[in-house]
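Suppose a colleague, Dr. K., hands you the sequence of a protein chain of 105 amino acids and asks what its three-dimensional shape might be. Before reaching for any lab equipment, you can write down a predicted structure in token form. Begin with the sequence itself:
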Amino acid sequence: MGGEGAMMQAIHSLRNNSRRSKREAFDGWSPSDKESQGIKIEPVSEEVLQQIRDKLEKQKKKEKFINFTIITLSIIATIIFFFIFFYYFQNTPGISDDFLYRNKR
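The predicted structure, expressed as tokens, is then:
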């Protein structure tokens, strides 16, 4: 079949470029290590936590207001666009009803 050689080359390239055998990320790590047990957590006062909560709440309210404003304005703009579109194309410009429906004598 055609294309087998190109596919074999791709497979060989991927195998040769594999870095699995060269990884040393977790060598020497054991669960008993006290230094590598994770992130050190420092105690924080309740006042600081409350300030952070208040700040996040203000940000969320501001974001909700902005989103609501954008959605409302886009809906209004869409409605205005459709009204203008239908008003403009209500009657084909240049052709009157008299021209279309006049009796030929």
